[in-house]
Specification:
235 residues, alpha/beta, Rossmann fold, six-stranded mixed beta sheet, 9 helices, 10 strands, 35% helix, disordered N terminus, binds adenosine-5'-triphosphate, binds magnesium ion
Length: 235
Amino acid sequence: MRTPVAGTAVLECRGLTAGYGGVPVVQDVDICVAAGEVVVLLGPNGAGKTTTLLTVAGDLPRIGGEILFDGESRRLPLYQRARRGLAFITEERSAFMSLTVRENLRLGRGGVDAALDLVPELAPLLDRRVGLLSGGEQQMLTVGRALAARPAVLLADELSLGLAPKILDRLLGLVRRAADDGVGVLMVEQQARKALRICDRGYVLSKGRVSMEGGAEDLLRRLPEIEAAYLSART
Ligand SMILES: Nc1ncnc2c1ncn2[C@@H]1O[C@H](COP(=O)(O)OP(=O)(O)OP(=O)(O)O)[C@@H](O)[C@H]1O
Ligand SMILES: [Mg+2]
């Protein structure tokens, strides 16, 4: 039986089955994110975390189940979803490398000033081409640009990839603050301990299914058990 979900859910997956070429790699997944909540999706490599986010974002067609935004099922093209408040930060950090930081921010829906309010570190970098930024600076840009648009839902896949711990702390702080301002966040993060410290709740995916879920404190306590399962449960 599925748990009933509070009326404030901005994103809900019900019995989501997703995969590639009609072959499921994620099966019967129930996930719910309320406004103002940071929810982390944990799990070993190949568990299906990215596949889940891609499907929620509409970049992959779902095989079965439902994806609801604000309690309403939507199958919209990307530009319409963006207008309705879904931001997706992928592992690739999709900024335009040959354009400057300022130009990239202008192309975002939130504009330059809103991004600088949230991430003042970008101010001295405005006229630099993104291709010349460090990995951490690029990630600051993608997070600043995404949050400046005031999305209702933020999806983030591995903010920490290749970044120094201090930068990750800063990025997680930005995500937490955005949630405190009302954004619903679903993030995938390998740095489970750090993520759980700023999250409200989490789910553990193993072999494409939710194997554990709970409040952040509960999952922090069970982290040794979760990480041990990572080592034994490849795909
Ligand atoms: N384009 C694709 N075509 C077919 N199978 C794919 C494709 N992309 C991913 N897969 C498979 O789907 C499964 C889940 O992959 P996914 O990328 O969602 O895992 P993940 O949990 O994000 O892993 P990681 O922690 O390594 O990023 C894996 O077995 C992977 O090989
Ligand atoms: Mg992934």
